[in-house]
Amino acid sequence: MQAWTQKHLRWVTTVHFEHAAQEATLLDYLHEVEHMADRIGRLEGAIDEAVKSAPERMRAVIDALQALRGIALVSAVTIAAEVGELSRFTKPPTADGLQRRRLE
Description:
Blueprint: H1 6-12, H2 20-52, H3 56-66, H4 73-83, H5 95-103
């Protein structure tokens, strides 16, 4: 299933119904789509501003995450906020270290 595009939205605005209740429902749905698009725009703008004032180390992580395929700003900010400082993770143990832990 593909996401709706502006072309789809323009087409939906040309659809009209004979019954007033159906027409009112369609108009309400279209209003809600517009409302949510505005809300998303405002929230994305707030995220942009928050990133500008974030510490340099966090901005570097956000930029690096966006270099990965499929990771845009909102996803990168979410990951950085959830994970926190990446330096808190130690180097993964070697196979020898894991084997010794199992034997203990």
